[in-house]
Amino acid sequence: MKISIETTVKATLQQVWHAWTNPEDIIQWNFAIDTWCCPRAQNQLVVGQGFNYRMEAKDGSMGFDFVGTYTQVELHKVIQYTLGDDREVRVEFLPTEQGVKLVETFETEDENSAEQQRQGWQGILDNFKAHVEKQHS
């Protein structure tokens, strides 16, 4: 099953792309809720290369590495990758009059309900929007 989530960020396409791909920015927004954090992020934005983002509870009770390999990178347009469990994810960057519309489509996993996954991924996307708009307001 595939789920698509979206948001529109009030910033330039270059600012949005940079914040999405730059490790120093990623650690500021890559978590769904305030009790979690992203203490480290590594990113090689090249097809065949990939990323590893550490996501964990601030109290240290749990955490995991979010790891993927890039399968498509079109500057300022599309990033597509395969996660470690072979699920596909596609992120589209669409300029609009209101800002940059981000559409993220991902294949669900079997451990959590589709609604839980939608909420988690949307939470991260909402954090991303808040981070970029705070930086560029």
UniProtKB/TrEMBL annotation:
Regions crossing the membrane: none
A Pfam short name: AHSA1
SUPFAM superfamilies for this protein: Bet v1-like (SSF55961)
Organism superkingdom: Bacteria
UniProt-listed InterPro entries: ASHA1/2-like_C, START-like_dom_sf
Domain named Activator of Hsp90 ATPase homologue 1/2-like C-terminal: residues: 10-133
Signal peptide interval: none
Family note: Belongs to the AHA1 family.
Protein name (database record): SRPBCC family protein
The species this protein was found in: Bowmanella yangjiangensis
